[in-house]
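Deliverable D4.2, example record:
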Amino acid sequence: MATISLVTGSLGLAIAVLIIVLIRRDKLYVNHGFAWIFTALVFALLGFAPGIFDWLASHLGVAYPPVLGLAAGIGILVLKVLLMDIDRSHTSMKQERLIQKMGMLEADIQALKEKIDS
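Output generated by the structure prediction step:
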């Protein structure tokens, strides 16, 4: 096994362990962690067995296997950005609704204070 394969595989496993530690310490949201663990494990698998990637590329009809990796990587990054944007939009909507509810509650409190004072 080539040195680069050992380095890549070991790096993938190390990143997977780091992600698990971050999830256990509540530094990383569990739903996001699963995707990152999967990514790290794929890196480890491809590092320890790089022939799998070449086999997959040849079965998909890709003449130069690194192009498949680049295309898959770009696709995954676009998907990740899309999911992050959806999550951010959802959080913004929740925050906006909470701000509106808080404004209504403050108006109610002010009305009650005026009622008590008069």
